[in-house]
Amino acid sequence: MLRTQRDTMDYNKQQFERLFKDNYPHMYRMAFSVVENAEDAKDAVHQVFVQMWRGKPQVAEESVRGYLLAATRNQCLHILRSKQLQRRLKEELQRETDEQRDEEREELLQHLQQVIEDNLTEQDRRVLKLHYEDEMTYAETASALGISSSAVNKHITRSLVKIRQTLKIAK
Question: Cβ contacts of residue 159 below 8 Å, gap of 6+?
Answer without folding.
Answer: 116, 120, 124, 127, 128
